[in-house]
Fold GGDEF domain-containing protein.
Amino acid sequence: MGPIIDKLLNLKGSFLALQSDSGFLSLVALSNLSRAEADRYLRLGAASVMKALSSKEPVVLRPDRDLLAEAIVTPGEQVVFVPVQSFQRVIGVLGLLADESNSDVRDWELLSSLGTAIGVSLESLRQRDELRTLATIDDLTKVYNRRYFFDQLDHEIAASRRYAMPVSVLTFDLDGLKNLNDNFGHGLGDEALRSLAQRLVRYSRAPDIVARLGGDEFAVILPRTDSAGAADLAKRLQSRVEGDVLLGGKGRELRLRVSCGSASFPEDADDASMLLRQADGRMYAAKAARARKRSK
């Protein structure tokens, strides 16, 4: 965007800084300027920048009115700070450097329209990113959802076929969620699901993909991992998940209990659906075996 603006307005350079919720400005785009130079304009022109942000109008950095401006504005040059707005909310500032003879940077209506156009575009991008995130993230646990899981699993299986590398899946089921909800309330049940998701993310490897498939079932995609590696990781994750205390106090502790199953491509299945069914089958077999053991 910077080079286009520079060409349209015949500028010597420009920069864009966006304001955080705490009020700090961060440089996000530069054109014909180094980061150090742009930062210098922001720091030494701070009074003019703040005026542009508060007034919501362009402000010229004037050496005759601001002593600090003498250190950065060279003879024959003009610097203008334009507030970047989106729906009447100021989200940043655009710095424009031009020759003193450039009349475009003295056209306040043009500059205000430019600041608004940039602001609306940035807001639209932010909303699009948020919608993309909402479409792939489970709202309760903040890990990936079922839709994203299958998209990524299809991608990993395609890569596995192409490069002859294995890929495995682990499935986890939270044991006793109904009893937890009945005895302690759904709030603690939700906390148990969130805790399980966080532990799976914390103790899995960087390339692994953790997702909630629905209810009390989670899955982990293990790229470039064969059945032996998957089995080892399943044991480690189960041990770590069950080792941490969910709730303690008053002489009692509550810990998560999970059942786990694993399956590997191409050893156990030839597509994503079959791979998950195989892992699910082994997970439910493990759950049944644990229940029989407790009943003895």
